[in-house]
Write a structure and sequence with these properties.
The chain has helices at 19-30, 43-50, 71-74, 132-149, 168-173, 189-193, 206-216, and strands spanning 2-9, 34-40, 56-59, 76-81, 85-91, 105-112, 116-124, 156-160, 186-188, 201-202, 222-223, 226-231, 239-249, 264-273. By secondary structure, it is of the alpha+beta class. It has a 6-stranded mixed sheet. Strand 6 and strand 7 (116-124) form a beta hairpin. The longest helix has 18 residues, at 132-149. The radius of gyration is 17 Å and the shape is globular. This is Endonuclease/exonuclease/phosphatase family protein. InterPro entries: Endo/exonu/phosph_ase_sf, Endo/exonuclease/phosphatase, TDP2-like. It comes from Nocardia suismassiliense. Its cofactor is Mg(2+); Mn(2+). Residues 6-262 form the Endonuclease/exonuclease/phosphatase domain.
């Protein structure tokens, strides 16, 4: 079965008020089946982003009994799917060193016609440049969440990980190093099928320039922070998820307006149980 997966950090409601319409326009054009969205302010913004896409969306606020601090300003995580989904867990990853991060991880079970259930996880990691130790803990917690809920079909995890491919948190997820005596293995879709460096947070994006000036303060800053990961044979020996293509999206301005301070990632896969 063919699936199209999209991840995009929508940058809450900052900046030009025309941005949400551009995000919605691109989502309609891409026609994805699974979408991971970061920094969505609330359910109203989520509805506007998904308007006309025929996607079913869930914002973390809809499935949590409380609202993390700063969520009204920085938003939360959301998941969307072409077919109905059921949220199986929401993981609050505010840890020491990342207490100002209101973004939770939303794990949903999606029924794929003719194939069965797949676990789709939308996540957002700690953002500070000096918070890799926190991101390491978050990555381990993410893999534990998968272990609790995974199905026969390979798990799909997507979102803004705020870490370069050579960071410990990403190296852990791709099986290149252990953390706290633990190890796992997922496929990084861009590494498998992307072309070029795949930077999703770049000085070339004018919307990101002000933030770079505030927290990076160095010229020419470009990083790959947004990912789609798929579960591997080790955890799913009776199924496969073959990554066929990976490319950037939301990476061009319209009339001088950029959709977000991040670029998105679009991944096409073939997924199914072994016959």
């Amino acid at each position: 079965m063919h699936l199209r997966i999209v991840t995009i950090n929508v940058q809450n409601n900052e900046g030009d008020p025309r941005r949400p319409a551009l995000l919605n326009q691109e989502l309609r054009r891409l026609a994805p089946d699974l979408v991971a969205l970061s920094e969505v302010v609330d359910t109203e913004q989520l509805d506007a982003l998904l308007d006309g896409t025929e996607l079913h969306g869930t914002h973390q606020a809809e499935v949590m009994a409380y609202a993390p601090p700063f969520v009204d300003r920085y938003g939360g995580t959301a998941v969307a799917s072409r077919w109905p989904h059921q949220v199986v867990e929401v993981l609050d990853l505010r840890l020491a060193g990342a207490g100002d991060v209101p973004w939770c991880t939303v794990a949903a079970e999606v029924s794929l016609p003719g194939e069965g259930e797949v676990l789709f996880v939308s996540t957002t990691a700690a953002w500070r440049l000096d918070a890799e130790a926190v991101r390491e803990q978050q990555a381990v917690a993410l893999s534990d969440l998968d272990a609790r809920h995974r199905t026969d079909l390979p798990t799909i995890i997507a979102g803004d990980f705020n870490a370069d491919p050579d960071a410990a948190s990403i190296r852990y997820l791709t099986g290149r190093q252990s953390l706290s005596g633990r190890s796992v293995h997922y496929h990084d879709a861009w590494e498998v099928a992307g072309d070029g460096p795949g930077h999703t947070w770049s000085v070339d994006n004018a919307t990101a320039a002000a933030l770079f000036d505030q927290i990076v303060r160095q010229p020419g800053h470009r990083r790959r922070l947004d990912y789609v990961f798929t579960g591997s044979w080790h955890a799913h020996p009776k199924a496969r998820c073959e990554i066929r293509a990976a490319r950037l999206a939301f990476d061009q301005p319209t009339d001088g307006v950029w959709p977000s301070d991040h670029y998105g990632v679009v991944v096409d896969v073939e997924i199914g149980k072994d016959k």
